Amino acid sequence: MHHDFFDKFRYIKSFWSRIPILVRFFIAVLFVVYLAVIPFGKWELISVGFLTVLLILFLSRLPLKYFFSRTIIVSIPALMITLSALYFKSIEWVVFIYLKSWFSAGIMVILISTVSFPLLLMSLRKIGMPSLLVSLLGFVYRYSFLLIDELESLQRAYKARAAGKSLKLRRYAFSNIIGTLFIRSLGRSENVYNAMLSRGFNGYLKYIYIESKTK
Amino acid sequence: MQNTVLKFDKVSYSYPNGKNALKNISFSVSRGEKIAVIGENGAGKSTLLFHINGIFKSEGIVETAGLEVCKKNLIEIRKKTGILFHDPDDQLFCPTVFEDIAFGPLNLGLPEEEIRKRIKESLGQVDLNGFEERSAHHLSYGEKKRIALASLFAMKPEILALDEPTSNLDPKTRKNLISILKNFEGTLIIAAHDLEAILELCERTILLSKGEIIKDGKTYDILSDEKLMNESNLEIPLTIKLSR
């Protein structure tokens, strides 16, 4: 399978893509910090955040449909959490906090979609981010695609044999798919660890930098 | 230099569920020999390969590259052996091809310049120059197999053990892979169902059935033995059938 879930628009040429990766990374992190420290009720500062996201979105030339669909999906957990606070907080507070998380998700979606993820990881190593953390992100990047592949093949197998639309049967099939996916993931992790051992892995991840020809 | 590079002496192995996977396996392999391990599904081919570098531990003695497979020798043994997994996605676990190939040489403690040289060389060996920055999920299955092989070549192993190297490959990629393996100068052990490829690559074959060695001999003699092949749920390769 050829997936591009993370860095789909890494080849887009734009003002944003001409900025070095590390600078883009720091802009994104600083922006998230800025949003995090805005005190409740300062709507003018949230508006500045909104305009900043729009400006960077414009400079990155990321398709609007892609941007909004991704940010909405990414910010769903934040929405659930903030909505649960409705019992003891006002609607205004919920909207304020959700907007903060939505704009944070927005800047991160722009960052990740417009840069080659492996190069982003390399940049993180260069600025001294712990090797283990970067390697974990690398594994997540690599294996999320495989997990999606496995899920898609299980779904295809289900659809190929699914007759009728009984909700009960669908629920049953869905729970089986999740269970199978879990077992396959366990098997995969064991095989990957064996492959690492076979190539001399002794518990310490080592690294050298690729001399990149692309940005 | 010692001529025997791999030795199995009365090796038996059972899976955690109690199923016997290998029973009293004994054989030895000389340096530079190219041998095949064949047998029906579940015969124990892959299990046998995983004993070579100590991924599976069992009763009996396994000696690889002159060292007994035990905890204290594992690092040294793994420097000298390369195992190609059946599914290349198990073997390519880094975000880029460059990092995947560098993984083994880095663990060998080689200097950076040497690692870069080996990455370039090994990509050249599998005819995938310029793939350094690619991610494994953007590669075809055949390319993944070749990159997995390159990741082993970069370690310059004495012994290469391959689990189903030609499975799921299109004819052209399969042919390329066979030609790459023909050029490998070290010891080669292939577990596979592709008997045509084995006929082309290996002069010696070990036939396994239900974890036991049924026959160990010349590849052509075993693969052309109709009775033996039928009993082992295998089929005589077309090349042999046509030559009769």
Structural summary, described in words:
The complex is a heterodimer of chains A (215) and B (244). Chain A has helices spanning 15-18, 21-37, 43-60, 64-74, 76-84, 91-113, 117-126, 131-161, 167-198. With 215 residues, chain A is mostly helical. In chain A, helix 4 crosses helix 6 (91-113), helix 5 (76-84) packs antiparallel against helix 6 (91-113) and helix 8 packs across helix 9. The two termini of chain A are 24 Å apart. Chain B is an alpha/beta fold and 244 residues long. Chain B has one domain (4-89, 158-243): P-loop containing nucleotide triphosphate hydrolases (Rossmann fold, 3-Layer(aba) Sandwich). The longest helix of chain B is centred in the middle third of the chain and has 14 residues, at 112-125. Chain B starts with a strand and ends with a helix.
Task: Write the topology of this structure.
The complex is a heterodimer of chains A (215) and B (244).
Chain A: H1 15-18, H2 21-37, H3 43-60, H4 64-74, H5 76-84, H6 91-113, H7 117-126, H8 131-161, H9 167-198
Helix pairs in contact in A: 2-6, 3-6, 4-6, 5-6, 7-8, 8-9
Chain B: E1 4-14, E2 20-30, E3 34-38, H1 45-52, E4 59-64, E5 67-68, H2 74-80, E6 81-84, H3 88-91, H4 97-107, H5 112-125, H6 141-153, E7 159-163, H7 171-182, E8 187-191, H8 195-201, E9 204-209, E10 212-218, H9 219-223, H10 226-231, H11 238-243
Parallel strand pairs in B: 3-8, 3-9, 6-7, 7-8
Antiparallel strand pairs in B: 1-2, 1-4, 4-5, 9-10
Helix pairs in contact in B: 4-5, 4-6, 5-6
